[in-house]
Amino acid sequence: MLSKLSNQQKQYLSWLLTKKSADNSIDSLASTLIDSQVDLNPHQVDAALFAFKNPLSQGVLLADEVGLGKTIEAGLVIAQTWAERKKSILIITPANLRKQWYQELYDKFGLKAFIFEAKVYNQFKKEGYTKPFIQDDIIICSYQFAKSKANDIKNIAWDLVVIDEAHRLRNVYKKQNITANVIKQSLEHVHNKVLLTATPLQNSLLELYGLVSILDERVFGDLESFKSQFITGDKEVTLPQLRARLSMVCKRTLRQQVQPFVSYTARRAIVQDFTPSKEEQQLRELVAGYLRRPNLQALPVGQRQLISLVLWKLLASSTQAIAGALATMTARLEKKLIDQDSNILDELDDDYEALTESGDDYEELLEEDEVLSAQEKQAIELEIAELKEFQSLAINIKQQSKGQALLTALETAFEALQELGAERKAIIFTESKRTQEYLTELLKSTSYLEGLVLFNGTNNDDKAKKIYKEWIERYKGTDRVTGAKSADTRAALVDYFREKGSVMIATEAGAEGINLQFCSLIINYDLPWNPQRIEQRIGRCHRYGQKHDVVVVNFVDRSNEADSRVYDLLSEKFQLFDGVFGASDEILGTIGSGVDFEKRIAEIYQECRDPEEIAQSFESLQNELSAEINEAMLNTRNLLMNHFDENVLYRIKSDAVQIRQTYEQYLLALLNDEFSQHDANVMFDANGFQLDDAITIDGILFNAGRYDLAKTNTHEHVIRLNHPFVQSLLDRFKAQMLKPAKLVFDYDAYGLQVSSLKPFIGNSGFLIAELLEVSSLGRLEQHIVLSAMTNSGELLADDDPEKLLKLPMKSQVDIAHITLPEKIYLEQENRKNRILEEVNVRNLGFFDQEIIKLDGWADDLKNGLEVEIKEIDKAIKEARKSATIAASLHDKLNWQKTQRELEMKRTKLRRELFDRQDEIDMQRNELIGQLEGQLEQQVQVKKLFEIEWEII
């Protein structure tokens, strides 16, 4: 590491750390690679580079298989966009993934996001904000919210829009798909979109057409021309053409392809059977019978589907869970009797934490105020009495068979962990906060009490408060503390579980946005019906960084036909619990967010009573799934979308590691020099520095302690390129107006052999440094151009001038003036011209790609116009043939009349065809003209410094 730097070296390194490189080069991601708090895999860097590949592109589709980190890939694109001061960024995601996105962006990239939902939006509107979507932070919202606020989204000049689980929009080509079409139209003006999905093609090539049309309407022609060319055409001819078109906008990597870079552990399933007691079965039958009634006073008509689903789940969770919900429903009916307002969704939210987010995927009808008749009041009173009876029965069940089975399951699963060499840590998931409380009481009398920790949406129990308080004290004055109590409490609970805990009991809030790869036992005490939610739970532990096989325990009541069938379907069809890769992404993609699948299961519980009827309904559901997963279409998808090059990934891995390490050393060298200027008591190493005493520099306080680069994840203090002090420092160095100087460099002090510089030891000469800025295609590139020569006139070749500036400085003396030889100026001009030529060649390549795309689009439209004429040609031949073989004069005349009418229609269409083709050509030429204007280079050169140098 350079220990003492000249002003010229400080300026040079500052520009290296911040310059804007070509978008398709790994150098362009240098600052993001340094600041990211994640061990990046090469396929993720490759995907991010693909997203920036062509500045003329309207966006990309990143379609890696499940589990390969598409969120990280998009995070790199978001972080880089943010670093370029383009801060109007929107993320559209399924409701249940909003918190996960929020946490991942903060934890891994240090980026703050804002979850936008109806309550927040309405509050902004009340406060007079005309454009609530204009915020200082990245905005995250759900699909439903994006649809409902499409006009607002349309009026914002977004720098980047990311759409997660984008397969939900793949049927956008169908006019009846309202949500997809509304979102597409609201984003038509956005020139930088990233779509994420593991399943871009499920059943039809038209789905690919739909997704690509959201990115760019000019990759393909219109729908009819796409059908005629790629659906009904000769597949051997059209599929290679389609593959070539897609390769410009779509990137897909398979899990099996990256195994040399990412090691996967396996999943092991354990089924814990249990049989409810007679009292528990009686309660279940009574409540089930109640829920199946056609008319219920306690459930609003517009919300019945959602609330019934929740009640079925709470019934299977615990007697405490259903007792609490029954009490909520009773209270609501009692309020209704006396004409008081009551919102059952708000009240049940305490019973089932995922209710608010689930509600985003259900249509909600508001109840109208009405005066109750005497007959309705009597029905309500009877229903209240029933609900109180059910509640009393639930409360009086003192011992639950499922709870007792948990004690057995823990013992069995911990034995399995011991065999695997894993720590004794388990996360138990339940869908109910009341069940969480019951399980806490259950485990209090066991050896698990001491290491027990709860995790839910509020995290306000006494132990959580104590853990939070101790954590805040422990990390006081460090970058671990964000100041946001809810985020810090979550971090404190995870740290406690990692360091001291043995059992964490979590509600659905625990399945979002936390990483538990140090835990390898997941217990689904309550099994969600949504496979996406199950995969999300398991993914907390079964993820990159997990060192052991993950044991997954599921509770199944085999005496209940529906429960048993649900488990079999999730286990066998979805392959959620066994194997290396977990859930089949083909199937998960088919079900989208999983909400419709969840609704189907709820319908079976609601409508089917006897085992035979239940079995038949589940068989029907499984057959529907099988029909949707078309093997031929999967093969087509692989043929069209797999463009894997292992050699590229090896090169990227090497380059990314080297660039990251090099730039980190530049950053530390600058910090080291700055701290030394202020006589700080500090010790630097390759990963950061230890500051023994607090110090204030440029108004910024540095507390004593350990400061690490982002990658080390020590969490005491993190020093990043986007740290305010670093940004201020770099800006100061870059803005210096430097006088000529004589620098003496110490070759031996560098400690490494630089063979190309060794012959120059004892020599002296000159060096010139300039900043070359090139603007074209709507983007800026910055190049630091260095030229050096000896006093004897020998030019330093290739990158030797750069190497020279990285040698340790022995001494620095400012001088009044340097007279540089003409030869060094000529060399500098040659170097700048070579860079400009490289930029021009690269931009012409991008231009050619766009021309190819526009030619394909124009040809598609023209071919589409000709399809109808070809169909008429066929009809004319048929009419001519029919006229020839007609048995009577009347029939012969009729067929000839039909033939003439068709020929007249064909003539008219041919005239229109020429006019329409001319219009397409004019439109194409106009677009090309616009592109040609963007190709023009605007060049600026800024002198940085000139020096005399000597190597000793």
Automatic annotation (TrEMBL):
Which residues, by range, are in coiled-coil regions?
A: 338-365
Q: Which CDD domains match?
A: DEXDc_RapA, SF2_C_SNF
Q: Which domain of life is it from?
A: Bacteria
Q: Which residues form the Helicase ATP-binding domain?
A: 51-218
According to the entry, every stretch annotated as the Helicase C-terminal domain falls at 409-588
Q: Name one GO molecular function term.
A: helicase activity
Keyword annotations for this protein?
Answer: ATP-binding, Coiled coil, Helicase, Hydrolase, Nucleotide-binding
List residues traversing the bilayer. Answer: none
**Presence of keyword Hydrolase:** yes
List, alphabetically, the PANTHER family matched.
DNA ANNEALING HELICASE AND ENDONUCLEASE ZRANB3 FAMILY MEMBER (PTHR45766), SWI_SNF-RELATED MATRIX-ASSOCIATED ACTIN-DEPENDENT REGULATOR OF CHROMATIN SUBFAMILY A-LIKE PROTEIN 1 (PTHR45766:SF6)
Q: State the name under which the record lists this protein.
A: SNF2-related protein
Provide the taxonomic classification: Bacteria, Pseudomonadati, Pseudomonadota, Gammaproteobacteria, Moraxellales
